[in-house]
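Practice problem: LysR family transcriptional regulator
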Amino acid sequence: MSIEQLTYIVEVAKSKSLAAAAKNLNISQSALSQAITKLESELNVKIFIRSRAGVITTREGDRLIEKAQNVLYSIFQLKKEANQINNFNDSLRISLIPGLISPIVDTYLSFKEKGSNLKIEVNEKASLKIVEDIKNDEIDTGFIAVNKGNFDLVTGLQFTPITEGKLLVYASERSGLTHSNKSILPDVLKEQQFVLYKDEYVLDFVSNFQRLFGPIDIFFQTTNLEIINKAVVEHGAVTIGHDISTKFQHPTLSSKRVKALDTGDLFDTSFKFGWIKKFDYKLSEEAKLYIEEVNSILM
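Answer key — structure tokens:
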């Protein structure tokens, strides 16, 4: 008995015709007939009754064909699993909070130079969206920010903290805010024009600030860091971002022209940053080594 023979009898039962089944299987009708006859002889069971009107399955044949379908489906699942294992060994889908593309890509290029077969797919997204993608199996792992207020965000998932940080205000020389080393005062911050990245934590910061000190002037919101950087440097706007992100993002926000400003003790803006994935998802050894290299830069 072979997989081909099981495939043949399932197709004949479906087509109800040796000629049609042979055409669908891309073999000769005589070869198909001989294979079925050989299987019937081996099993000592009559599977089909052949006539000029076509092919009819016997009662015993119906039972065998049902079993054959189950076997073929199991083989299909086995091949699918093997394919996933092969993909698992050399690919990694990652999403991360904005501003961390540089260490991700630089580490990957270094890995490739060493002969690694690892392939990565990288996207920048807000933390909540990354968690959603993990739960929907759209990515393998993600790098997110979690604060005390929403630690339940990672409930049921494996969260591995890597470092800590906070939200800061970023301003350029044009804003007139970069000449002092003190925390920026709420009254001064209220007078600024804001450009914001669409991130749940940034928006929470703004919401809390406006609740305590009144409305602020929000020029625009976007997920385009290039536009935010340009507005800060060239137009004197201010923005809000994670300190870890600004260490690695666009050169303008890490240059002497832009300064990070602490907001003091207005409210808690501290975060834990780390990797998140499903508990039962196993990363390949190559992927683990890659992430360890990235962590050495982020920490």
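Discussion: The chain is about 45% helix and 25% strand. Students who identified this feature from the tokens alone can consider the problem solved.
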